[in-house]
Design goal:
Length: 487
């Protein structure tokens, strides 16, 4: 999971098997995708982050219009990429092009062991130059930031766009997609993949059963009941990684209570959970699925890939995930499965419509403050946000990036990813995106633990609300929390 970070990832995401759980995916006008509206949050202050001149030394060459950071020919670039659901062929293609055009040779590492391989290097002051910091073993971005180990990416974002030098890089991105990389008002991580989160189903299974997409929660429950009567689970979830069931829970909260209910959680409101009608309605709705026996049998004890594979075997009607799911399950998905994305059905009286989706960016790329070749790292990231490299990514990884109009219209996407493009277009401005997953890793883990207990029927909804509120209240006591805020 690229984290899981939503991508968490966590956003982050559990990617124990070479699969990306990224919290990520979608984009672009070239694919007919509506831009995600920017949400303002920012808070003022900033500390941590790196010195823009550190690490340049003799790696800095002459600057020019095409090389604004002075990346030096003949240099080396140390690249580490999370090798999950998106693989790492796209990065190899980037590195080859970088070498051809700038004469800089990349050292490539593709791995799922991000923490295991990189934490010792960060501790020793010898980190790579650029990192896709994602997956189950992601080094939490908030932790790296607090330790002063991340470069502030302002210089990259304010540089001229590769495609249109009259524009800054930041002005070529889908609005709102930089927000998950914020720490105390600074962008210190570039979440590269535009993702949607929600429910997934098999178009083939639905056609065979005569089922229609449920738009309301009552219709969702009715379909789950019908599935159960035919020996099929209603809802599968990745029980060992409760990040995934929180996709459903948090989507229901945001759609029921609107953006205010979502922001109350991100802003650590004393009534974020206890005292929130939206949170209470959402968790009661999820627990009803548990009580009625609509979960796929055994799902609580399965990893993400185990649960997803059983879903691919038509043992459940629905599963929760982000749009990395299709890539993660390529080998397990039948050729005629026809994977489809579904926005979370709405509860009665919901403030957001059925078409509303959680959407935004995932898969955080970072430049360490002590990178050995900062000019080349910054130039590499600038080129990631070019149409040429965005299209390379789409071809290799079957996913869209945060670049507006960033993918050649001739690129053919697989069914699941194409359905997310259509869902994003239908949603228009009705998108939302939580940020607590990036801002407060410890709190996010506590919310997931509470959901694990609930899905296993060890606690009831009222206790879930109490535990989640306690996690919020604990986080709010940290003075640094006041530096993150969304309006």
């Amino acid at each position: 999971m690229g984290s899981t970070s939503d991508g968490n990832h966590r956003a982050g995401h559990p990617e124990a098997t070479g699969v990306g759980r990224r919290a990520l995916i979608k984009r672009s006008a070239a694919l007919g995708l509506a831009a995600v509206p920017a949400m303002s949050f920012l808070s003022a202050c900033a500390s941590g982050g790196g010195d823009g001149d550190a690490g340049e030394g003799d790696t800095k060459g002459k600057t020019s219009k095409d090389n604004p950071f002075g990346a030096k020919k003949g240099g080396k670039l140390d690249v580490v990429v999370f090798k999950g659901g998106y693989g790492d062929d796209y990065a190899k293609a980037w590195e080859a092009d970088f070498g051809t055009k700038l004469g800089i040779t990349a050292t490539h590492t593709g791995t799922q062991e991000i923490t295991g391989k990189l934490q010792p290097r960060f501790n020793a002051g010898n980190p790579p130059d650029i990192v896709d910091d994602s997956g189950a073993q992601q080094i939490k971005v908030d932790v790296l930031y607090k330790n002063g180990q991340l470069l502030d990416l302002t210089e990259v974002l304010d540089a001229p766009s590769v495609d249109d030098p009259a524009k800054k890089v930041r002005d070529t991105l889908i609005p709102g997609t930089l927000d998950p990389g914020l720490q105390e008002g600074k962008v210190v991580a570039l979440n590269y993949i535009y993702t949607v989160w929600g429910l997934w189903y098999s178009g083939k299974l639905f056609r065979e059963k005569g089922w229609e997409e449920p738009k309301t929660w009552d219709d969702f429950l009715a379909l789950c009941k019908d599935a159960k009567s035919q020996g099929i689970g209603g809802l599968a979830h990745q029980g060992k990684y409760p990040y995934y069931i929180n996709v459903a829970i948090m989507d229901l909260i945001a759609k029921k209570g609107g953006l205010d209910a979502m922001k109350a959680i991100d802003n650590l409101d004393p009534k974020a959970f206890v005292g929130s009608e939206a949170a209470e309605a959402a968790i009661e709705a999820i627990y009803e699925v548990v009580e009625r026996g609509y979960l796929m049998p055994g799902t609580n004890g399965l990893t993400h890939t185990e649960s997803q594979t059983r879903w691919n075997q038509y043992k459940a009607a629905f599963i929760t995930s982000g749009s990395w799911l299709e890539n993660e399950q390529l080998k397990q998905t039948p050729a005629d499965f026809d994977m489809k994305f579904l926005p979370m059905p709405v509860l009665p009286g919901s403030k957001l419509p059925f078409q509303a989706i959680r959407a935004g960016s995932g898969e955080p790329f970072i430049i360490p403050a002590k990178a050995g070749n900062l000019p080349a790292a910054k130039e590499f990231m600038r080129r990631m946000l070019s149409k040429e490299w965005s299209t390379l990514f789409a071809k290799q990884a079957n996913s869209l990036t945060i670049l507006k109009d960033g993918v050649d219209p001739g690129v053919r996407l697989r069914p699941g990813t194409q359905s997310t493009v259509e869902a994003s277009k239908a949603a228009g401005g009705d998108t939302f995106r939580y940020l607590y997953t990036e801002w407060y890793g410890e709190m996010g883990t506590a919310l997931e633990a509470a959901s694990n207990e609930l899905m296993s029927r060890r606690i009831q909804p009222k206790e879930w609300l109490k535990r989640c509120q306690a996690a919020v209240d604990k986080q709010a006591k940290d003075p640094a929390s006041k530096k993150n805020h969304r309006d």
